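I'll show a sample.
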Amino acid sequence: MKKIVIIAMIIGAVLLLLPPVVGSQAQSRIEASAAAWSEVSGGYLEVAVEDYDKGWFASSAKLRFRFTDAYIEANPLFQADTADGRPLAEIFAEGLTQDIDIAHGPIILGQHTGLGLGEVVSIWDGGDEPELKRLLEQTGNDYFVRSAVTLGLTGAGDIVVDAPPFTLQAPADDVEQIVFAGAEATGTVDVATSHIVMTGQMNGFSVTGSDGEAVVERTRIDIDMAYPETDPYGLGGGEVVIDRIVALSESQTAIDLQQAKFGFNSNKDDDNKVSMDITYAVDAIKGADMDLKDLNITFGMGQLDAGALREIQTLSAGATPEASDPLAVMNVYREPIYDLLAGGMTMHFDPLRFNYDSQAFDAKLNVATKPGNLPEKAAFTLDNPLIFMNLFAITADLSINENLAMELAVPQLKEQLAAGVPEGTEVSDTELEDMARAQAPMMLGALVGQGLIVDEGANYRVSATYDNGALMVNGTPMPLGALMGGG
């Protein structure tokens, strides 16, 4: 019996003494996570932990999210003032804050109860910004967004996020009503691998003004990303889908966008090379002068050296030259850019397609690096275009509806015709439009005659390759000077 009592006392003592130990670990993990997220932002965003108040069974702190000083100083948008004379740079330098409450394990007594490392509840209620505080009061809610992360004993746990619905009446002079239908998300997290899986949705949002209304219908989000120390740029993928965005004026539908999708994906192969793709897709965009359907644009990069990506991220987090000197900015990344090229990086737009007024446009572009044509790293410079002349192999294919090609040619011809109008002569825009439309068929016919485009009846087609300084268009060698007006 005495043994049982002693064991019970030992267990009780351990459970009593463990919370502050776990609390110290929690503080270290939160501070490390804030630093990691600051690094992932590429030097634009800074996340800091402030006012950490560590208790025995629970702690509290404040997270501050702000743009970095270097980013604010380099961005001209932040150099203006607000309507009341407060510098924007000052506002963005202060950033936004949110409170967090931490319940220490191994016995969690927080929003949830059970065994685990702890629970972190984050509430954004406007923080230190008085205008946001006043706005929250008008909603009648206690917070804008709340999230809870509960970690088990292995460091893996659950995430729950919610944003309550609200309606605001006349929040500004030109806004009559704002309606937010609420949002929620759930997911899992593994602290050891920084692996996050989330799924959720925003239920809807609308703004009504004196001259119309804008509505964003349901928005869904799915994310499965990992940010391990070896790959802080992130590996995995995700998708955001907006069911519909409608902007209405008093007399007509200004824009109606249906099923807009944004997707991204990145992975790393056994050779330590990273590939990534970004896809934009829209089922339909309709407006007063627009009828666009089946838009699909995918941009991708492959054979990316993982070490070079980490180096670029590290350099981005540091101070950079003034943005007014693009070459100086690029030269900061000279060595990792060389490593990316030496690794045989590729790029592609495939597909790039849409239907405009039922007229099809379909194109693709592929670029492959030729590492064998690179000079030694010491001789590599970004301001010598001759280095890049033989560095890439490019293939491009384009198919475009004949009528759409005509429409795209008209603005270019109008610009040329306007430039040729003698000084003192008045020519109306309508007259320029009529002349351009009359000349467009002749211009396209001339391009067909030169072999630059192929007439396939309903469509025009162009296939081109560029390799080792030689350009082929539709199977015919084409001097670069001819295309540049040199012959």
